Amino acid sequence: MSAPDRFIAWCKQEQASLQQQLALLEASKVLTGEDRGSGWVDTTIESKKRAEARLAELESILTETGSAMVSKPAQETISPDTTIKPDTTIKKVEAASSPRGEMGQKYLVAGRRLSMRLWIDEPGGKLKAPTARDYETVGYVILGSARLDVEGQTLNLKAGDSWLVPAGAMHQYTIMQPFTAIEATAPPAEVHGRDAPA
């Protein structure tokens, strides 16, 4: 894939992630805030505005004569006594309103490059179809046990174990005992149909 194609793909991925985040913000399922030195400040409205502005920018980039155009932002003047802080925006997803995926997973918080999901009480004896995904997965077993076959290797997972499935690796889970686990995926599994059932 050429550099311009990778850039366009990255822009589309960011666009999809921002659209999902904006929908959650607008539905009040996610709140954002930051500590500005004097305590917690709700920044949900500011986060919506930033997401809307970035979506408009991405739309412009992705629609200009069918190719991506990159330009440097105008120079900002900053007074010498101003400290530039890193982005400290935080997110919260309430358990009761966490969206569910088609395979039963519960989506937790997501950023632009990483997301979390929770599998709760997956039934024992369940054999999931072999699949390969476009994202990397790391997981941690909370309860139960499962067998994970990855590219000819077998991992027996039990409570307290963690695992890695590399992006693109053919793998299959067999749930041995009712299974509860948390996973993180990079890039986020729930955008661009990456998490569609196999």
Explain what this protein looks like in three dimensions.
By secondary structure, the protein is of the alpha+beta class. The protein folds into 2 domains: 3-70; 98-186, Sandwich (Jelly Rolls). 22% of the residues lie in helices and 34% in strands. It has 2 helices and 9 strands, in the order αββαβββββββ. The strands form 2 sheets. Strands 4, 5, 6, 7, 8 and 9 form a 6-stranded antiparallel sheet that branches. The two termini are 25 Å apart. The relative contact order is 0.16.
List keywords for this structure.
Jelly Rolls; about 200 residues; alpha+beta; three-stranded antiparallel sheet; 2 helices
Quickly give the CATH architecture of the largest domain: Sandwich
What's the CATH class of the largest domain, please?
Mainly Beta
Low-pLDDT runs? 65-76
* Radius of gyration based on Cα positions: 20 Å
**How are helices and strands ordered from N to C?**
HEEHEEEEEEE
N-to-C span: 25 Å
- The structural class is alpha+beta
Strand content: 25-35%
The helicity comes to 10-25%
Provide the CATH superfamily of the largest domain.
Answer: Jelly Rolls
Largest sheet, strands/sense/barrel: 6 strands, antiparallel
Shape: globular
In CATH, the topology of the largest domain is named: Jelly Rolls
Mean pLDDT: 80
Number of helices: 2
Q: Care to count the β-strands?
A: 9
Number of domains: 2
